[in-house]
Amino acid sequence: MSNTTTATQNIPERFWTGVPGTFCTYTASVRWAIILQNAIDDTAKEIEAIEAGSTKTSDKELSLKQGNTIKAQLVKLREELTNDSLLRPFTAEEVAVSNLDSFNDYLAANKDEGLRWNHAEWLFTEIYMYRRINCYFALQSEWTKFDIFNSLKQSTFKASFHGVVELAIRYKNLLPTWKQNVDNKDWDLLEILFKEFIEISLWGNATDLSLLTNATLEDIKSIQGAKAREASESKILVNDTKLAWQTIVNANKNSKSPVRVDFILDNSGFELYADLMLASFLLNTGLVDKCVFHGKDVPYMVSDVMIKDLDILIQDLLDREFFPTGAASTPESQALDLFANDITDFRKQGKLSIEADPFWTTDLDYWNLDPSETKYNGAKMHKELSQSILVIFKGDLNYRKLTGDRTWKRTTPWKTAIGPLAHTGLPTLSLRTCKADVQVALKEGVDEELCALWEKDHPGKGSWWSSSGKWAVICFSDGQ
User: Fold this and answer.
1) Predicted confidence band of residue 227 (pLDDT cuts 50, 70, 90)
2) Cα 85 off chain centre by
3) What is the rounded CA–CA span in Å between residue 119 and residue 25?
4) Which class for 320: exposed (0-12), middle (13-18), buried (19 or more C-beta within 10 A)?
5) Which of 19, 345, 374, 396 is most buried, by CB atoms within 10 Å?
6) Cα atoms in the 13 Å half-sphere on the side-chain side of 62
């Protein structure tokens, strides 16, 4: 069973829910119900806020009526999940307000499988759930702009206060060095800094940022700096950073066209902030002329970036109540203001932009990023990304879509696991903290070693190390 448009021989099946002992079955049987209950609770809170008048609407009575309809639909969806009901197609009304043809095509093609919540492909079913949630809001006129996950996004980012400030100060301290490299590049220094900001983008607020604290150029290049980098890299099981760096160097030295890098985004909040740091490094040093961010067109996977989330993040950085750094004259406030204003300037200058094509919220894996895929926007997005010298795919879901979320042997080469995407001309880099069952590109013996290590404290779940978020991979393909 496959919803890709490319026929490939001898590929393994995808991960299915309902398979005992797998992380995906745990996700389907435990985590999804919690996510739905949180959505029900947050909808109820918004209804209460409208009723109390603290949330203003154009039509209070209609908003309340529609809100209660949505809440009832979410309750019913949770019952479908807990009762292991059949996965129903999207209705004509739902299809009319959203990009859902690929879901119904898949369900129709596999109608004889008896697909249920706990007997279906994990990747498809998880995305299907989020699109069902979105349809309920999209169909209600007073709720179409409401992001059911916004409250959690905001509270999580606010809780990252110390990391946000720390990284902003690093940015302020390093900015003069970056700008010195625009015309006369110190390639060795830039490579070290590229690796650091790739890792910041990779790990988000879990990364150790200690190397960059008030560091001089000599510190960064020192033996101690090298040791700090080695320690931070020890949990990265596959590390193709050097190949990505060489792609950027070659583009700088050989390309006669503007150099562009694209980011296929993952989470909002601190991870988006870290992605902006990487983009700012590339732009401020002149390594790249333009960065294009690709977010989601609907609230999705709880914390995924929408276009409005970038605008909100900039507002948060400038808001001294959201990030209480004191008076405008404090170093912390100045650093936050500087970074927020620089990002705003990049956007005004056209050096940084954010888009949200509906392709990114379909169930389709990235084997569909192919010039021959014309039904679901795959060819369109391939053409768009072809303008880039490097496409950076952030996070675990994008990794799953790159590999098709298939039951590959964990030593499968990266270029094999990403199928036709390895040969469609797109240079790609996957930055992934491991949070799912699928794992490829490991050296022989690594999986066995980590399974044994994880098994010690998690009996019967040794293979779940790849779902723990404790390890990461950086995987590159030149697209040739």
Assistant:
1) low
2) 29
3) 9
4) middle
5) 396
6) 7
* 352-379 pLDDT per residue, tens: 999 999 999 999 999 999 999 989 999 9
Burial of 427 (0-12, 13-18, 19+ CB in 10 A): buried
For position 189, what pLDDT does the model report?
Answer: 93
d(CA 388, CA 427): 8
CB contact burial 167-205 (16+ within 10 A = b; e otherwise):
bbbbbbbbbebbeebeeebeeebbbbbbbbbbbbbbbbb
Kindly indicate the confidence band of residue 216, based on its pLDDT and cuts at 50, 70 and 90: low
307 phi/psi in degrees, rounded to 5: -55, -45
Is the pLDDT assigned to residue 4 strictly greater than 50?
A: no
CA–CA gap between residue 129 and residue 82 (Å, rounded): 13
What is the rounded CA–CA span in Å between residue 188 and residue 113? 56
Whether 123 contacts 401, CB under 8 Å: yes
Mean pLDDT confidence for 233-244: 94
Residue range 264-290, pLDDT digits in tens: 999 999 999 999 999 999 999 999 999
Q: Which residues pair with 355 in a beta bridge?
A: 294
Backbone angles phi, psi at 142, to 5 degrees: -85, -5
Tokens 């990114």, located at residue = 360
Tens of pLDDT, residue by residue over 415-426, are: 999 999 999 999
- 8 A C-beta contact, residue 274 and residue 160: no
Structure tokens at 58: 């154009």
54 burial type by CB count under 10 A (0-12 exposed, 13-18 middle, 19+ buried): exposed
CA-based nearest residue to 88, from 70, 111, 69: 111
Cβ-based burial of 445 (10 A; exposed 0-12, middle 13-18, buried ≥19) = exposed
- What's the rounded Cα separation, in Å, for the pair 100 and 346? 34
Which amino acid, 59? Answer: D
Angle at which helix 187-203 crosses helix 241-254, to 10 degrees, equals 130
Q: Tell me the whole-structure pTM to 2 decimals.
A: 0.94
Distance CA 26, CA 24 (A): 5
Of 134, 135, 117, give the one whose Cα is nearest residue 126. 117
Angle 154-158-162 from CA coordinates, rounded to 5°:
155
Query: Cβ atoms within 10 A of the Cβ of 111, count?
Result: 12
- Residue whose C-alpha is closest to residue 207's, from 236, 177, 179: 236
